[in-house]
Amino acid sequence: MKETGMALPILPGKREALNAFANALSGERLNEYEASQVSVLRESWFVQATPLGI
């Protein structure tokens, strides 16, 4: 199985917006999200703190 990983920055003050987006994908936008993931076998999200913050 091929896997791809990406690290993307979260701009200062945008952590709550990320949480709201993730919650929407498992809530009110679940059907839309599942339809877009037809060929995705597994997806994981990780938030890592850096010396500059999160």
Descriptive account of the structure:
By secondary structure, the chain is mostly helical. It has 2 helices and no strands. It starts with 14 loop residues before the first helix and ends in an 18-residue tail after the last helix. The mean pLDDT is 84.
Terminus-to-terminus distance: 31 Å
Q: On the 0-100 scale, what is the average pLDDT?
A: 84
Q: Note poorly predicted spans.
A: none
Instruction: Count all strands and give the number.
Output: 0
Order of secondary-structure elements: HH
Overall, the morphology is flat
Task: Summarize the amount of helix as a percent range.
Answer: 25-40%
User: Structural class given helices, strands, pairing?
Assistant: mainly alpha
Helix count, DSSP H or I runs of 4 or more residues: 2
Question: Major sheet: size, sense and barrel closure?
Answer: none
Note the beta-strand portion.
under 5%
Rg measurement, Å: 13 Å
